[in-house]
Amino acid sequence: MLRICQGLERNNCSWELVTDFKQIVSFGVMSTPALVINGQVKTAGMVPSKAKLTEIITTELAKQG
Question: What pLDDT shows up at residue 9?
Answer without folding.
Answer: 52
